[in-house]
């Protein structure tokens, strides 16, 4: 199949590379000429495990190309829309500018018989609107909604071996032939037994935000339990283990700590609430407001705990922060809980030094006033307090005895419940966790 991918961010680049790996001929389009140039050289423009290897493997095949000219995507059987839908400044709603621009671009090149497949996370109703635009310009082309569920850090695996595929299809013959086309695109995962859910546009769009809302709710639920645990001396990790043994609940996504960040969960639950408001059913989602506020409260609690451990004030105290990315195995700092805590502490007068194995360049761009160190050892040098805020394996594996010789005070705050408290205490550290 000939495939075009509109938008080469995390989603689009990984999708393009994976589709080429499956044997398709893929062209990725982006307006960012620097990104297109890097990708054309076979360089991944962001950190994603497995992606550089994939790009290198594909280079000699010529099955994967990139362009900054939309005219080049002409002739593709399927055009995947993979652009971002960030939160609008000062509002909860999603900014649809990139989706609308992508569609306007596509309308110049789409031909009869081709399929436009939306993958971006959008407010429900968007697919219907885009389908009407497409029908007005190219009546014989078909729009399908095919949401993406990949996680950063596992994006290649999630794309090649997804938990499920969802097709939002129009009724009738057009829907049937679009489905056949998508089945050819995804022949490999389907042959592996990946479940396929065929449905209408509205359901397909809602599946994505419902899934992310559920995941966010699970995290905030366990963080609410953590608040109870903290006030009663109970252990939220053991509690999660115990309730997680019940298969109806499940242990995954019950890791209590600093809460969720990133470019997806926070903005998706907010955009979902905003859309529910527009639809007149805002009451159905008021619980997501609580999910959001429990989540944000974790960041405040982290700063409060640091103050408590420092004897009432963090002013002038040298504090090391391990982690800047919103989660391990990513260089993404969008809505990073770690950086939000670091910035708060600095604002309150602490002498903060942040380190991260991958995210420092992105963090520095976003928070130029913060101080950064390029290793954990340098960050903790002379620190009176160390905070683990992103649970990179190299931080979880740090040797407390070795670190003792570098710090000026052995105080560890584990914001991700990732360390072994006994090992740190045995090495003479004051260990506290969220
Ligand atoms: C999330 C979803 O998991 C994907 O399925 C979805 O496709 C993606 O958003 C998207 O909409 O594009 P992602 O943002 O990459 O993926 O990251 P997650 O692995 O979901 O983690 C989100 C945040 O939750 C991180 O800050 C992580 O540290 C936090 N988290 C996760 C917890 O605090 N506790 C947990 O138990 C799990």
Automatic annotation (TrEMBL):
Its EC number is 1.1.1.22. SUPFAM superfamilies: 6-phosphogluconate dehydrogenase C-terminal domain-like, NAD(P)-binding Rossmann-fold domains, UDP-glucose/GDP-mannose dehydrogenase C-terminal domain. InterPro entries: 6-PGluconate_DH-like_C_sf, NAD(P)-bd_dom_sf, UDP-Glc/GDP-Man, UDP-Glc/GDP-Man_DH_C, UDP-Glc/GDP-Man_DH_C_sf, UDP-Glc/GDP-Man_DH_dimer, UDP-Glc/GDP-Man_DH_N, UDPglc_DH_bac. Pathway: Nucleotide-sugar biosynthesis; UDP-alpha-D-glucuronate biosynthesis; UDP-alpha-D-glucuronate from UDP-alpha-D-glucose: step 1/1. It catalyses: UDP-alpha-D-glucose + 2 NAD(+) + H2O = UDP-alpha-D-glucuronate + 2 NADH + 3 H(+). It is an enzyme of class 1 (oxidoreductase). Residues 320-421 form the UDP-glucose/GDP-mannose dehydrogenase C-terminal domain. Keywords: NAD, Oxidoreductase. NCBIfam families: NDP-sugDHase (TIGR03026). Belongs to the UDP-glucose/GDP-mannose dehydrogenase family. This is UDP-glucose 6-dehydrogenase. It comes from Nocardioides jiangsuensis.
């Amino acid at each position: 199949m000939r495939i075009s991918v509109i938008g080469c961010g995390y989603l689009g680049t990984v999708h393009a590379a994976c589709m080429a790996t499956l044997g398709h001929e893929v062209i990725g389009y982006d307006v960012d000429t620097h990104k297109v140039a890097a990708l054309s050289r076979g360089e991944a423009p962001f950190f994603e495990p497995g992606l550089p290897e994939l790009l290198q493997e594909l280079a000699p095949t010529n099955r994967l190309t990139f362009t900054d000219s939309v005219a080049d995507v002409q002739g593709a059987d399927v055009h995947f829309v993979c652009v971002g839908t960030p939160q609008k400044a000062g509002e909860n709603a999603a900014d649809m500018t990139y989706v609308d621009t992508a569609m306007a671009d596509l309308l110049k090149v789409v031909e009869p018989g081709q399929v436009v497949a939306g993958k971006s996370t959008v407010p429900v109703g968007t697919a219907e609107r885009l389908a009407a635009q497409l029908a007005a310009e190219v009546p014989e082309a078909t729009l399908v909604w095919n949401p993406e569920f990949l996680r950063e850090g596992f994006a290649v695996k999630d794309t090649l071996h997804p938990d499920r595929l969802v097709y939002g299809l129009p009724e009738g013959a057009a829907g049937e032939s679009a489905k056949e086309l998508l089945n050819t695109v995804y022949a490999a995962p389907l042959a592996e037994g990946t479940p396929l859910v065929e449905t209408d546009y509205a359901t397909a769009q809602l599946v994505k935000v419902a899934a992310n809302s559920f995941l966010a709710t699970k995290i905030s639920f366990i963080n609410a339990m953590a608040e109870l645990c903290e006030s009663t001396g109970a252990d939220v990790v053991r509690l999660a283990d115990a309730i997680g043994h019940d298969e109806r609940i499940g242990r995954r996504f019950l890791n209590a700590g600093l809460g969720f960040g990133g470019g997806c969960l926070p903005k998706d639950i907010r955009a979902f609430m905003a859309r529910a408001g527009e639809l007149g059913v805002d009451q159905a989602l008021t619980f997501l407001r609580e999910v959001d506020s429990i989540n944000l409260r974790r960041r405040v609690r982290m700063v409060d705990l640091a103050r408590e451990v420092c004897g009432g004030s963090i002013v002038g105290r040298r504090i090391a922060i391990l982690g800047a990315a919103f989660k391990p195995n990513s260089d993404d700092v969008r809505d990073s809980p770690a950086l939000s805590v670091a910035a708060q502490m600095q604002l309150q007068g602490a002498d903060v030094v942040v380190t991260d194995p991958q995210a420092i360049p992105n963090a520095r761009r976003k928070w130029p006033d913060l101080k950064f160190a390029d290793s954990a050892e340098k960050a903790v040098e002379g620190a009176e307090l160390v905070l683990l805020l992103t649970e990179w394996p190299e931080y979880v594996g740090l040797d407390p005895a070795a670190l003792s010789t570098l710090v000026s005070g052995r105080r560890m705050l584990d914001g991700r419940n990732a360390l072994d408290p006994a090992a740190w205490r045995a090495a003479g550290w004051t260990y506290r966790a969220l």
